[in-house]
Amino acid sequence: MNELSYFANITLSSFYFDVNKDCLYADRQDGIERRRVLTVLDQTLATMTQVLAPVLPHLAEEIHATLHGLDEPSVFTSPWTPLVCN
Question: What are the average pLDDT values for consecutive 10-residue runs of the chain, which has 86 residues?
Answer without folding.
Answer: 87 85 88 92 91 92 91 86 71
